[in-house]
Specification:
Elements (H helix, E strand, L loop, with lengths): L1 H45 L5 H24 L6 H6 L4 H6 L11
Helix pairs in contact: 1-2
Length: 108
């Protein structure tokens, strides 16, 4: 019976490793999406554009990306979102849009 347990443990260990790899990969993708959404918003603001609808859409997209990133972090056991808000420089208006509104006019 002992060899069977060892074999089962190694299969479980390999599966745990694969799951951890996928979690890390998904967290990285979500982080890059958040960075891109925040950069698009910052670029829009730096350019001094005044299209309110465009800015509203960019804030909503950043809020959605923040929501997905926060959920993925929590799935990885990282519960303190204050670190994300500080390190990524997430504006309060994006935090306020996180996860509660849809993205207006999402045609692509």
């Amino acid at each position: 019976m002992v060899p069977f347990r060892r074999r089962s443990a190694s299969i479980t260990d390999a599966l745990d490793y694969e799951v951890a790899q996928e979690q890390a990969s998904a967290l990285g993708r979500a982080g890059r999406a958040l960075e891109a959404a925040l950069e698009a918003l910052r670029k829009h603001d730096r350019n001094g554009r005044t299209e309110a609808g465009t800015r509203q859409r960019l804030v909503a997209e950043a809020g959605e990306a923040l929501w997905y990133f926060t959920i993925q972090r929590e799935c990885c056991g990282l519960r303190d979102s204050r670190v994300v808000m500080r390190d990524y420089g997430v504006p309060q208006e994006v935090q306020n849009r996180m996860g509660i509104f849809g993205i207006p006019d999402r045609r692509r």
